[in-house]
Amino acid sequence: MKRGQWRRCWGLAAALLGLPAAAQLEGPPEGSSQYSCFEAARQGSSVSETIAAQLCQGARSDTPAQCFLRVQEKGFLADPQALQLCQYAQPSDDPASCFFKARTSSFLDETQLLELCRPPIAQMLKMCPYGP
To answer: Quick one: signal sequence residues (predicted)?
Structure first.
């Protein structure tokens, strides 16, 4: 088997087995939104790698990290609650501002505030936790 044929054969086998392509084994691509979110969460903060990874799972930008850091800066929420509020946030969402405004202008408890302000996708995932 020639060298080029071997690579194509390996690529096909990897695809059929669900393995990442050889080029992907070297690390995340430059500009990967999940990875950039992870890095943003870890920079200059005490966010653990575990929390940062959970926060940025499925992220399309670094918005979840920015939200998390804003909430942590104010010291209002523990990590699990900040994670619940900010995970899946997109640039069009602003769960941190929603939380801050609702906290000062309502009598809702923390759980109700989190439900009110978390991104819409989080609500959908809560109803269908195992996917379609």
So the answer is: 1-23
Residue 103 falls within a domain, yes or no?
yes
In a domain, 10, yes or no: no
- The whole-model pTM stands at 0.68
39 lies in which domain range? Answer: 31-127
Question: Locate tokens 């939380």: which residue?
Answer: 99
For 126, the token pair is 């809560």
Token match 């989080």: residue? Answer: 122
> In the chain, how many domains are there?
1
90 touches 60 (CB < 8 A): yes
What's the CA gap between 71 and 80, in Å, rounded?
12
Distance CA 132, CA 127 (A): 10
- The dihedral of CA 75, 78, 82, 83: what is its sign? positive
Residue-wise pLDDT for 67-118, tens only, equals: 999 998 888 789 999 999 999 998 888 999 999 999 999 899 999 999 999 9
Residue 40 placed within a domain: yes
In whole angstroms, give the CA distance from residue 106 to residue 102: 6
What sign does the CA torsion over 29, 34, 39, 42 have?
negative
